[in-house]
Every structure is written in structure tokens, then in C-alpha cells.
Fold this sequence. Notes:
alpha/beta; globular; 1452 residues; seven-stranded mixed β-sheet
Amino acid sequence: MAPPTILSDAPVVAASTAAPSKAKHTTEAHTASASLIVSWPIQGKKVLVVGGDAVSAARAKFAVDAGANVTLVSPLNELSSDAKSVANSVSAFVDGAFDALLLSGCAMVFVSLQNAVEARQVALACKSRGVPVSVASQSDVSDFFFMSTHKDQSLQVAISTNGNGPRLASKLRKQIVKSIPPHAGAALETLSRLRQQLKAVDPSSASATRRMSFVNRVSEAWSVETLASLFADEIASLVKAYSNSSDLPKLRQGSLRIIRASSGHVDDLTVGAFRALSESQLVLADSSVSREILELTGGDVMLIPSDAETASDSVVHAAIHALEHGQNVIRLKAGNGAVSETELALFTQKGFTPIFLPFVGGSVIAAVELVDKREEEDAKEEFHEAQQTFTAARSVQAPVAVAPRPATILASSGTPKLISGQDAATHVAYSLTDMSFVYPVVPESTLGQIAVTWSTNGVKNAHGKSHKVLEMSTRSGAAAVAHGASHNGSSVSVIANSAALSHMLPSMFQIASAKLPVVMHVATQGLSREFGVYNSVADVTATSFTGFAALGSSTVKEAHDLALIAHVSASVTQTPFIHFFDGARIATEQSVVPVIDTSSLGSIVSKAISQAQAVRSIPVADLVETVMGNMASHVGHQYKLFEYVGNTSAESVIVALGASASVAEEAVRILAAAGESVGLLKIRLLRPWSARHFLAALPRTVKRVAVIDDSKVAGSTGHGPLFLDVTAAFYDSVWSLPIPTVFKGNFAVGIENVNSAAVVVFLNGLASANPKFDFKIEMPATASQVTYSDVAEAIVWDVQADGTDSVGPHVVKLLQSQGVSSVSVFTSHSSVHVEPVSATHIRFSKHGEVPATASLVNTANVALVNNISLLEHVNVAASIREDGILVINRQGANPTIQDVAKDIPAATKRTLQARRIRLAVIDADKIAFNYTLFRGNKGEYRNLALVAALTKLWDGVDAAMAVSDLEAYLTATAVENTVFRTKLGAVRTALNSIAMLDTPRDWAREEGAELAKFVSPTFGLKKLANLDQEDGESLARTVASYQPALPILFKEAFGLQSASRPDAGEKTFQVKVTENRRLTPESYERNVFHIEFDIGTSGLTYAIGEALGVYGQNNAYHVDEFLAWYGEDGAKIIRYDRINEKTSAMEVEFKTVAQLLTEVVDIFGQPGKKFYQNLIEHASVMSERERLGFLASGEGADALAQLIEEETPTFADVLQMFPSAHPSIEKLLSYIPNIKPRHYSISSSMNVHPTSVHLLVVVVDWKTKAGKSRMGQCTRYLVGLRPGKTVTVSVKPSVMKLPSSNEAPVIMAGLGTGMAPFRAFVEERAYQKALGHKVGPMVLYFGARHRAEEWLYGEELEAYHADGLLSHLRLAFSRDQKEKVYIQHKIKADDTMLGEMILKQGGAFYLCGPTWPVPDIKDALVTAFSRFMTSEEAEAKLEELKEEERYVLEVY
Length: 1452
């Protein structure tokens, strides 16, 4: 019997040999048989797999992966689906039954047949020819048993049960694998590299034993973790030690730290002590140290008896041994005891100086004899500082809202919170109902998203029940599901954009008819032609006849309060309600308002409902006002259906609702305080309209009523519903006084840019002799700035892509911590620019109330501009009050006013000077860069610097307290002491880096066009092109496995499209391989191959000289190996959202992680410095973090360059070099670029080959200095393609074009695969000649190493030469003779002919290949031209030919 054979190098296949065969084996005898696990490399050998089931497929795949030449034998109709997929990757497939002739040259045979008799016959045939055979499920006739194997790089683990218990073997193997140290496979790879390098310096076979002995010494000397992470320079030092026969070098000497356990409580640990314990490999601990401390240790623990004064010599020697081999050792003392001098001396004598780490409750340093007095004082100072820092971190909590001074608006049951209007309404809806249906309409909307989050996290409602939230699409029949759910007894709320209401009308009629108490919370919006958003209740009034009541809010507080009133009223009246609020402003504006928590809402609502039940028979309007009265003590305000503000004897009264009412209220209060006869009637209950309540709220003295009518579509003609309601009310029998004149109108421009000054002017005009019936309220040209007493304002301007949206909320939290009683923040987005702009408006008051106005800030104390490019489009100074400050983030230290002047347009300069605004300049980006060299997010640190600058310069903010609060915030939120110190350093640097500059007087005379003074809010549209992402931001996210099925099930709704590479950004085509033929001999070191693709119906066309872009793919097996090592599930679904650059449409793509890493992401490409920088923050092991930081720094540039040059590590390699740097798969995908197409010159003419395209490719491969084989990603992909495989390609134009005249001479110079385009040239000229056209001479210079191996397309070209198409064929095979001959030598020899062809006959010269011969070829052509002109003229002529595209170089 032939020796049992299996186990290969890549990867190794596990097997065990069967016991020697005996006649008539009994079952017991077989069970007792023994086996020997052996290995045999099968790479390149013939392996036969007989059978077509799943077992055969698994055997075939394993052998293919091991590099064997596999022949699969089975009738085609018996192939399983697994076997069919494998059949494409085997060397040969035999469609039929087994034939003994197939055993010729076989190294081994695998058999898995359903027919046991046939399987035994195959086995007997193998045995008769001495070929080892393994038959599945028939161990008695098997020479070896196939064993599943655990693989980790070079490490493999297999267990043999002689075929009796494969499942048990697998179970045992898994248990054993769990006990193997992490990175054992990487350690073996290191030893493999070491063996290769030792053999390189000492190749003698006689030294094999010495080399292996040295490797064994290294294996025993260092831990698995140390071996796994050795760098190239460290391996080189081992090789040097071998060569010099010296001791092993000391690599990465470990550290000795001394910690006293003090109280023994984990809570008393400093950050440094905790980290040291968790990262230690060996701890010498007093036996009395508490168990909870010992459980924190990361390695082995050696206990020292509590009665022993010092550790024994053997224990100390064990610690020294660990230190010498790079391990971290902790000496952990109980209580506050000191380590004895004797013990310390044993360590110091060996060169290990201890590091003393403070343990908060402990004293500072024990063995003061080891340090001088200065060092002792330094250590004490460091300890006390660390102790104070950690104590602060434990005692200071994240900033919370501080209850401000008592005021009417805060005398409620709620707790002050910073919240938006839509979230306040959603909070009430979620708390009081069982189900919510969200209709956002706009894709980018955040409406209702907080409810989705709560539901996902399992947050209960006020009744202790789970709340279900469903996001719905807006289409005809919307709200039918809400009707059905409510009809079935569920308590239902709807959260919607007002644009969805028109689609809900049929369902709303049915809901109201059934008297179902559904409450809809609606964000009202209108959309202008410029995508601007404004408040409009037109959609709400369009539902007037459905039977729904409509209640409106105008502030964030009202959104909370009236949402509550709407739910109570709906329950009492059994009437469905619409609660609407300003979707353009209030929906996303954040203010500090009292919010009643969920636990309290249930009892409050129950009590209010019971109180109202007593009078439920009265009209709905009266019931609503009753509920308002009952709820007043809880919400802190006595709401009315119609609420009047102003002079009780007013003659001019404005009637308004929502945002319009809030702007008008400011002006009315100002004028009424001055004695003017004006007032405002704010509408709360729009439907049902109660004329009785409306008239009762009006002063009896009214003569003029101005209706600001937001109830009709902007721009439409006719009267709006609100105007008609108001007018009709006066003809009701209740009103017996003279009927006032009713005017109608609205705001002329976006209300956000109108302040109370405009309303004051309007009211003055309303009282004039000739007021306008149809009015427009607009800002007067000479209006002065309106400032609010005791209110401080600021604006943060930025380009949205820069990610400073956290600055505003961060500042607000700091204001709250200072006891600010009222604060509001609103971010206005303008997304119609190429670079979308945002402006965050902040107002606060320490003692009063921030006005409830819809006006944006235009009198800021301070404005901050992060991106100075924004200054080119907006006059930001127009929003700053006189003597205010403009803060600019710009690059450059110590800027002068002359430096800054270059960045500021003339219009802004004029405003700055006119208002005496000072400039404050800071380089926040440089500060962020300096503090994130090794870890951290630059955007986060930049924002911290901006927050510090803003709080320091904002008049009204206690700067010292703000800085103190900021430090407290950092203390409470930083996860590590080092992070805290780094962030604190950035803040302090920012505070000391602000340059204050006065504006020159001559700026007032600057000439230049005016700029926009504000940006109108728009829908939150995506940027029109792909955004540059902040470091570490992910464009991909993991989604549920069912999500990709939705677009397939609902193709029309999702607009499903098919695309081969939607991420490519160019048109791609699908072609099929028809031929893949090697042109160089198998024995030759260079693999040059010819590959052809069938164009089919793909639509691909190409012209002469163009290049084919091939989208290569990574090896699927290598991807699976990487995912297994990384611990990631390849089947996980990733969703990509991207903008189509051509259509600007949002596209969504789903792929599995395995698909992405195989087809899209360049995981086996070579990373740049940026990747090392990105990994720093993810590295949890300090040594790895430091090494990454060094390689990514300027100081490590040479080391990184050396690493890349010697090892050319891939992204996957770098991750394995630093295993503790383990970003999430979403982060990792954002760090690694996509696979770029590799462009190859097309070697065919489409006229000659109309259905195919040809390429000429050389395999790019090399070995690293450590001996690791590397291969180019795309050539690895192409060389392995078999006929029938589909490939994604694109076409790229080229300068390699034939002359326009067929008669013009063509001179071609190609080196190696540079022959490709010239084959196409020759074919095209041959085609033209066949059509009867006269063609000019063609000269080909071809260069390579050897004619016998690299005469590419030789037979074709010689045939063309014999035919006369190729008039001259000049070959230069550099290594076929003693003296090297290159094509430039051949060109120089033909100088007269070339000069004649190019200069006299209008010919063109082409070169394709590497760059190195270009200078010589240029000199040869200049020499040729010099026969007809001077050398200077020849040089100039060559440049002229280049411009004419008659001297074309395509070199690489």
C-alpha cells in the first residue's frame, strides 16, 4: 500500500492513516485499530474526486484550495448544487462514470458515491494501482480518513477517530481550539519568516539541525503574543544573533509596576492602575489582597503569603524571567504596605526600575531610597493631581438642566428639559397611546424618529405597556391602518408632515364618523419653488369637513402642552383631533421647557378625563376649554381657545395663529406698553370654529381686524378659510356692536427674516386714513435692529459637511449648568447650495424669558464661522449687533488684519466697520490636529475648541464658569484619564490662542457687490455630490436581513434597478471569458497571457487604442479566511446610501459583508498612512497604539516607508499586525477604499473582432523581504478566470490613436505587454487593406528578454510581415546574446528611415511600455531628425509632434 498522503501547505488538509488491512475484520477489531496523523503537500499534484454529492463537493473544494489539480468525476445530471459550483473551479470535469484509466498520475482519490458497491469497486481499483483512497462512510476500505481542520494561518488542529466518530472529533477539536492562545497562527507565521531568513543567511543542509534548534529556542523564550507581533527589524535582530552565535536579544523588555491595594475596593482604582492590572501578564500579589481586585488581572497571579516580608527568590526570578521576555509584571501589595528593599534590589540589579502607580486610597511611594528627593516630590505631585482628577471624575455628573427662577411658564408638573417641538409632541403621543404611525413625507425628516428609538429600546408608555411604532409611506389611502387599529380597540396616534393629510382624507372621514379618539400630531409646512420651507396650515384647513378637531401650537412649550390637551379632549369628546405645530421652525427648534415625565402623565390624564366627564354633553369647543382649565395646574398656563394680548381697549387687532402670532405678539406688547391702542388675538382651536368664543375674546372697542391668513396656499387667489371664518363671526347674532373692517394678508418674505419692527410699521399703517385691504408685512428699508433686554444671542455658521452641529447644543448645556432660566436653539438648513449651509441660532436669558418668536437671530452678540468659504456667499456680519464679535476659524498662527482681509468680501467689511464689530481669529483645526496625532477624532476636538472660544467671547456668559463647567463635563465624559487631559489641553490651548483684531476704518469704503444677509431654510436635502466624510465616519450601516427583500417585493415603490457596479461612477458592462491562454512557457518565470471576452449584448464598443478597465475581485477563500480571523459574519447585510452624481438621486444598495470584501472593498490593497492613523483610536493595547502612532507620525515616515518597501503589507496584514485595533465592520469599510479598475490596453480591433475584446496581461508578482509571496490584485483575478466567467469592465479613451490617414507611416515601439495596442493597430490596418484601401508602411520595434519565451504574438506578426503589411519588423531580445540589445539600439540604426517617414511622409511614432527607455529613444529620434535639421530644431520638432499627437508615449 502506498504511504498515506495528505496535508498540503496552502492550506493543509488533515488526514489519519488507517490500520494495516486484515482479512475479515471484525467490528471490534476495527474499532480498536490505531492511526497516525500525517501530512503530505498536494500542491500541484493530481487529485481525483469521484461523486457528485455535497461530500464530494467539500473534498474537491478543499483540494482546490490546497493548490491541487483536481479532477471531478460524476454524471452531470447527478451533480448537487454544491458540486456544480465547485465544478467551475476544478482543473477538469469528467461527465460520466469512474474509469480506472483516470488513476494515471494520481496522488490520491476521494470517493463519495450513493451506491456502496460502486464505491468499493473504485477503492479496489485504487489499491491495485497503489493510489491512496478515502471512501466516505466506508472506513474499512479507506487508506486514510479525511479530517476537518481548524486553521489559523500556519497553525492547524485536527483529531482522528479513525472514521468512527467524526462529529465527536469535531466537538473535541473545537474544545481544544478554545484553549489555544490567541494569535498562535500569527506566531507560527513569524517563526516561518524567521526560518526562511535563517536559511537565506545559512543555506547549508548541514545547518538544518542548528537552524531548527535556534527556532526552538526562540519559541521557548518568548510568549505566543510576543512572537505574533514581532516586527521585521526584531526578526532581523534574531537572525543577527544566530549568525553571531550570541544570546537571544532582549526584545520589548517588560515593565514592572508597583501598586498598593489600599482599601481593596475596585471603586478606588485610578484609571492607570485599572489599565495596568488588566493588561498585565503576571501579578505578584499578597495573599490578603481582596478577590475583587485579583479578578481584574489579565494574566497569571502568584500569591505571596501574608506573613512573608518579601517574595521568595523563586517568585522574583519568575517575574524577572517574564520581564526579560517582554511581559508586564505587577507587584500588588495589600493595604498601604511598602515593598521591601531586598525584593526591590533583586529587580533593580537586573536593570528593571519599578514604576509606582497611585491607588487613590493609598500613600504615594514606598521605597524612597530608590529615588532622590526631587523625584519623590514629583511623584507625590503627580499622585495628588491624579487623585484629584479621578475624584472629580467620580463626583461630577454630566451637565443637567438646573431649575431656573420661578416663573409662570415653569410652574407646572414638568421637569425643565431641552427638547424640540416635534419631540415634545411625540413624547406625549408615545406616553398616552399604544401605537404610533409615522408619515414623515420628506426622506431626510427626523419627525417621529425619537419614537422609533424608544420603541426599539423597549420603552414602556404611561400605562406600562409596550408601544409599537410603524414608519409608513405616504400614498393614497394613508391612515387606513390607523383607522383599522383604532377600530380594533388600540389607542392610536399619528405623527405626520402636513403634506400627508391630503392622502388621508378618506380615512379621516371614516375615523371621525366612527367617533374614534385618534390624535394626529402634524408638522405644518409649505414648500416654495426654491425648496424653501415655511409655516402653512393650508393642509390642515383642507381637512375642515372631515370631522376632525384642530388645535394649534406656536411654541415648543405649547407643542408639549396642547398635545396633552388634544389627547385628553379626544378621549372626553370621542372626537379625533389634529394637533398642529410649525413644521418649518417649532418642529426642530429646541428650548428648555417643562416636560411631564411618562410616569406622571398617566395619572394626570386619567384625572383630567374624569373631571371633564361631568360636562361631556356640552359642545366640543366648550369641552376643550374645560380641559384647558383642568390642565392649567399641570402645564403651568391657563390656555384659552382664543387668547388675547394687548390693550384692553384696542381699536386695531391682529388675528393670527402659529408662528405668525408669535412674531406679532412682540410688536403688540411693545406698542401696548407705550399706550397704543393695539392687540393680538391668538387662535388655539381652529376647528371646530367657535364664533362665540372668538367674539368673546375680542375687545368691544375694536374697529379694525387684520387677519394674517396662513390657512390658504401661498400665492393662491381668493379669500382664505380663516378670513372667511373671522368675517362670518361678526354677522353672528352674538355681535351687536358695529362690525369692524376686516383686512387680510400675510408676511411678504420668509417669516424667519421678519422681526417685530416690521409689525410695528404695519400696525401704524393700519391705523392710517388709507390702510391696504390686502396687506403684506415686510421689513422696512430703514428698520433699526431690534434687541431684547436681558437676552443674549449667538449664531454658529457653517457648511453642513464640516460637522459642527454639536457646537450649539454643547453651548446650551453649558448655559444650563450656569442656571440660565430660558434658552432656545434652532438650526436653519439651506440645502440648495452646492455646499449646504447651516446656521444655529441660540438665545438665552438668565433672569427673564427668551421671546417666543419665529424670527431668526439678527442681533447676535457673537457669531462664529467655522468654514471661511461661507464668507463668500453670506454677509454674516449683518446678523451681528453693534459692538459685537465675529469669530473666524482660519488657518495660520498669529494672524494680522492684513491676513484676514484676504478672506472677507467687501460687503462684509463694510458692515463690520459700520457696526464696529471686532474680529476674533482662532485656528481650531490646527489645535485639533496637534491633539489627535495618536488618537481621537479631529472634528470632536475642533468643536471643543470652538465651544471654548464662543463661551469666552459671548457677552453675558460667565466665561470662567463656562470653562470650569467645560472641564467638569470633560471629567465626567472622558473614558480615560489620558483622554480627559488631552481634551482639557485642547480647550486651554484654544482659550489662549484667540487673536482679537479691530477692523480698519478704510473698510467702510470697500467697493464690492452686496451679499445675501441670511439663508432661507429649506428641506434637509442631501448634498448634490458625495460628501467628504470626517475621519472614521461610516457611509455604510448594518441592517436587518429582511431589508434587501423589500425592494424586490415592491419593485415599483422602491424603483428597483439592476446595476453591476453602482459604486463605479462610470458606465460598466458585463462580458464573458471565452479564452484564457498563457503565451509564455509554463517553465518560464514570467506569466504573460492572452485573454478574450465575449461582448455579447452588453452594448460595449471600443475604438483602436482604448483601454479596458477591469473591475477585479478578491479571492473569496482569502476573504473568508480574513472574516473568520476578524470574527465577522460574512452574511451580515450592509446598506449603502449614495448619491448618483449624474442624476443627484439617492440610491440604496445592499450587499453582504462577504460580497463587499470580495467584489468592492480593496481589503488586500496597500494602505497609506491614513489607515494607520485611523486605527490608533481602536487599538486597546498600548504598545500597538504607540507603534501605530509612530508609523503615522512624521517621525515614523522612514519606518513606514521601509515597512511598505520590504513587506508591502495589505489592509488585512496591518489589521493582523495590530490585532487589538479592531474597528467595527462599518467603520472598517469606511476606512478602506473601493477596488479601482485596472486599465489594460486593448489588443484587438473591433472591426476584426466585432463580438469580442482582447487583452495582453502579465502577472505581477513578487516576494517581500521576509519571503512572503505577493501578487497584483487584478492579475491574480484575471489569471484564474476560466471560460464562461462573467467580468465587469469599462472603457477608457486613450491617446494611442492611429493617424487619420491610412497611408501615413506608423512606427510602433513596444516592450513586453506594451505590444497590446500595436496588435490592434496591425489588425486595423489589415482590415482597411482587406477593404481595398491603400495603407502606409508600418514599422514595429519589439523588445523583450528572450525570443523563445517572450516573442508575444510572434507567429501572427511574422505572418503580417511576410504579407507586407508590416513593412519592417525589428526585434530586440536583450538577453539572447552576450551584449544586451534594446529597441533604442534598433531605432538608432534606422535613423535615416525614421526621419524620412516621420518628417517627410507625415508618419507618427508610438511607444508603449515601461518608462526607462524613454530618454534613449528620444535621443535616437533627435539624432534621426538631426540629419534634416539642427539639433535644436530637432528637439523643438519632437515637442511639436507631441502636440500634434504624432509622438505618443503610453508608459508606466
